[in-house]
């Protein structure tokens, strides 16, 4: 559900917003931001109308991090991260960032990053005001959830901890991408990664979700498929044993089964895939 759209500013680009030069009381705009933060929490506690959303810009100093900036503003780092489309805590390469005057999270109507897809799927049914926000490339519409912070899956995604290793002591034997099929010698695209481990080694859910498939595949043998928020799916193949059932809710780290050599395989290993929006992703950059 969306509420009426609003403009945060009459300018079209972030560079035209009022700029906070210093994150201390010597800066008048910084003092205004601090006053608005105090008013926000007072109003929220009393059930009164909240201060209007206002945006500023700031040029990060060398070595300054998202966490340091957010701490100086007394605002959750999720507010600064989401209004700037950040995918991690680093501000390297950002000449200018946007700073909101009140806490909350921003979700673009057209998600692009993994974090934005996760946030979009978790919050799509939650009412929010739509704001047109000036960016470096022009105006973009965002849903703004005033006073909200990252949900657990959102925070894990932002910190690069969305997925855990399905076989923590497994050894990578075949990466994602083109390879020679060991049975036919044909050139094929490997849509996942293989981790060798002794037969019977526990296979863990890389992330919490819902078991959407339990079955037997001619190539992958015994397999489990899990559906996650953000349009993600994980696949676990060649299992010797399966310990979950269809439609079961599983937590991150839960044992799904054990490493085996079912299907077409040259030895005991786990075939692991991550799919997002129907597209296979290289799992390695997404694993710790």
Descriptive overview:
This protein has 2 domains: 2-158, no CATH class; 171-286, Glucose Permease (Domain IIA), CATH 2.70.70.10. The strands form 4 sheets. Strands 7, 10, 11, 12, 13, 14, 15, 16, 17 and 18 form a 10-stranded antiparallel β-sheet that branches. A 4-stranded mixed β-sheet has the order 1-5-6-4. Strands 2-3 form a two-stranded antiparallel sheet. The protein is elongated, with a radius of gyration of 23 Å. Helix 2 crosses helix 3. It has 288 residues and is α+β, with helices and mostly antiparallel strands. Strand 12 (209-217) and strand 13 form a beta hairpin. The chain has 5 helices and 18 strands.
Cα-based radius of gyration, to the nearest Å: 23 Å
Q: Helix count, per DSSP?
A: 5
How much is the average pLDDT? Answer: 92
User: Separation of termini?
Assistant: 35 Å
Q: Order of helices and strands, N to C?
A: EHEHHEEHEEHEEEEEEEEEEEE
Residue share in helix: 10-25%
The strand count comes to 18
Principal-axes geometry comes out as elongated
Which runs of at least 5 residues are low in confidence (pLDDT < 50)? none
Count of all domains: 2
Strand content: 25-35%
- Largest beta sheet, briefly? 10 strands, antiparallel
Structural class: alpha+beta
């Amino acid at each position: 559900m969306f509420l009426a759209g609003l403009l945060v500013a009459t300018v079209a680009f972030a560079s035209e917003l009022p700029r906070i030069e210093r994150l201390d009381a010597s800066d008048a705009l910084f003092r205004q931001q601090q006053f608005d933060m105090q008013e926000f929490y007072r109003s929220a506690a009393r059930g009164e109308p909240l201060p209007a959303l206002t945006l500023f810009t700031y040029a990060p100093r060398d070595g300054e991090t998202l966490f340091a900036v957010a701490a100086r503003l007394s605002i959750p780092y999720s507010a600064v991260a989401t209004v700037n489309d950040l995918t991690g805590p680093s501000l390297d390469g950002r000449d200018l960032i946007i700073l909101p005057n009140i806490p909350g999270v921003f979700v673009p109507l057209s998600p692009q990053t993994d974090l934005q897809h996760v946030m979009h799927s978790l919050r799509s049914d939650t009412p929010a005001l739509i704001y047109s926000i000036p960016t470096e490339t022009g105006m973009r519409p965002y849903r703004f959830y005033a006073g909200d912070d990252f949900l657990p899956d959102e925070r894990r995604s932002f910190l690069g901890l969305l997925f855990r290793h399905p076989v923590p002591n497994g050894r990578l034997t075949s990466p994602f991408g083109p390879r020679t099929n060991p049975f036919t010698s044909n050139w094929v695209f490997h849509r996942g990664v293989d981790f060798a481990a002794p037969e019977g080694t526990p296979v863990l859910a890389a992330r919490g979700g819902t078991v959407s498939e339990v079955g037997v595949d001619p190539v992958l043998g015994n397999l489990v498929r899990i559906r996650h928020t953000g349009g993600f799916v994980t696949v676990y193949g060649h299992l010797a044993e399966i310990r979950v059932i269809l439609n079961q809710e599983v937590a991150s780290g839960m044992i799904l089964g054990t490493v085996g050599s079912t299907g077409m395989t040259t030895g005991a290993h786990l075939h692991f895939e991550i799919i997002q929006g129907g597209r296979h992703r290289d799992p390695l950059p997404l694993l710790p």
